[in-house]
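Worked example 2:
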Amino acid sequence: MTPAPRWTAYAALLFGACAISLTPIFVRLSDAGPAAIGFWRLGLSVPVLAIIAIANRDAASLTRPTLPGVLGGLFLCGDLALWHYSLGFTSVTNATVLGNLAPIYVTIIGWMLFRERPQALFLVGLAGAITGAVVMAMGGGMVSTPGPNPLLGDVLATLGAAWYAGYLLATRAGRARSTASAIMFWSSLSGAAALLVVAMALRESLLPATTNGGWALVGLAATHVIGQGAIAWSLGRLPTAVAAVTVLIQPAFSGAIAWGLFGERLTAQQILGGTVVLASVVLAQWASARRPQAPVVQ
């Protein structure tokens, strides 16, 4: 099968990043426990991912667990549990910004594991994106509703970023031998099981208290399938660090939506930081445009 043009991988990556920028909104609207929300987010997506795998004539992969897929799910469990809890303590913008600082870890580890040596111009884009993200987070101190304990929320979101880096790297490794639907299926299944254990251990409320909360969980599952699915597909065609930098566009979209829904007004500093992030992401992608494309499983 002829590999898809590289621009389609960039388009899928950007689309996936925009899609998952809706997740903090759905988390806020879901009235269940933080880890339980993660369980439903992944659990409800499993049947859909199985149908997609069967439709792609990849049903055999549903009977063969892959190590990268299972490990990716465990990393995703840690990321979602920490990040969902952070949303209860800090603003949507801060949680999204700090929860997406994974490029720091991904660039270093991707260089070591996959020999994805970053170009100098890419590192400039990475530094700019991280700087813009930090500017956005620091500018959140003047938002109207920063959260009951912003410091704790910011720490949890930052820790979650390390786990998300592990998820991206595991998915990147798995895409060398497996389809995106197979990787997504096993990471979602193992992640859902792990999050259920966490939710029960913390004695969280497993079921949403309202009908609207239930619909928010459905929305979360949909954004997971669409957003993370697009990112997983693109990871077979792009360096992991490029994907990690690109998902930093989420805060700009999440912050704008949270401004309208929750009254979390963006300050001039946050708007400036978001602009720097977007420009830096474009620079990082442009710097990586000439990297040779590795063969992947379609």
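Residues 56 and 181 are 8 Å apart (CA to CA). DSSP finds 14 helices and no strands in the chain.
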